[in-house]
Amino acid sequence: MATPATGTAGNGSAPGRGGRLPRSARRKQLMAAAQEVFVAHGYHAAAMDEIADRAGVSKPVLYQHFPGKLELYLALLDKHTTELVDGLRAAMAVTTDNRERVHNAVVAYFDFVDGTNADVQGAFRLVFETDLRNDPQVRERLASVSRLCMQAVADTIAADTGLPRDQVEILSVAVTGTSEVAARWWLENKGVLAKADAIRLIEGLVWRGISNFPLVGGDDAR
């Protein structure tokens, strides 16, 4: 008697083919399997057959939830861009101490790239290193997440410094861009620096720049 095929997406094994799951749980399972495949192969080389096999389901089950590969990719992109933006907003809102805000913003990027608390690793590659950047729907989402991350930092800088909006926005792009690129470099060279040391260095660099701008009604950005 044949043994039912099982998938391995996420942290646990998926049910065999034909196993019933609530719709939300099945969707989560399929997205976890798809993320593993997209991260490993990129969008263009990923195959729906492999995603279904990895999830332990038939292709018809996969297509019941996602009509095509692009829709599945966009669902993952929406999920992870929302996580990044929400994490950065929370980092800025949790304290009124500006040095802590800088620290938290840098940590938000390092945690996102490192996959801290994630069931499946590599989400940042779908956002920052996608091979589907020329697709209009993907390009729109990437532009949106960049804008929203910039705004999360810009709103705080604007409130504290009173600088004109165009100046605030380019400063915010510098903060988010530096944090993103540094976090990605650290991950690719993980043995070189401990995560905490890398965060401390980038935080110090960003803070030395931001703290030179005077607070509204104060002497500096502290």
Automatic annotation (TrEMBL):
<keyword id="KW-0238">DNA-binding</keyword>
<dbReference type="InterPro" id="IPR050109">
    <property type="entry name" value="HTH-type_TetR-like_transc_reg"/>
</dbReference>
<keyword id="KW-0805">Transcription regulation</keyword>
<feature type="compositionally biased region" description="Gly residues">
    <location>
        <begin position="9"/>
        <end position="19"/>
    </location>
</feature>
<protein>
    <submittedName>
        <fullName>Transcriptional regulator, AcrR family</fullName>
    </submittedName>
</protein>
<dbReference type="Pfam" id="PF00440">
    <property type="entry name" value="TetR_N"/>
</dbReference>
<dbReference type="InterPro" id="IPR036271">
    <property type="entry name" value="Tet_transcr_reg_TetR-rel_C_sf"/>
</dbReference>
<dbReference type="GO" id="GO:0000976">
    <property type="term" value="F:transcription cis-regulatory region binding"/>
</dbReference>
<keyword id="KW-0804">Transcription</keyword>
<dbReference type="InterPro" id="IPR009057">
    <property type="entry name" value="Homeodomain-like_sf"/>
</dbReference>
<feature type="domain" description="HTH tetR-type">
    <location>
        <begin position="24"/>
        <end position="84"/>
    </location>
</feature>
<dbReference type="GO" id="GO:0003700">
    <property type="term" value="F:DNA-binding transcription factor activity"/>
</dbReference>
<dbReference type="GO" id="GO:0045892">
    <property type="term" value="P:negative regulation of DNA-templated transcription"/>
</dbReference>
<feature type="DNA-binding region" description="H-T-H motif">
    <location>
        <begin position="47"/>
        <end position="66"/>
    </location>
</feature>
<feature type="region of interest" description="Disordered">
    <location>
        <begin position="1"/>
        <end position="26"/>
    </location>
</feature>
<dbReference type="InterPro" id="IPR001647">
    <property type="entry name" value="HTH_TetR"/>
</dbReference>
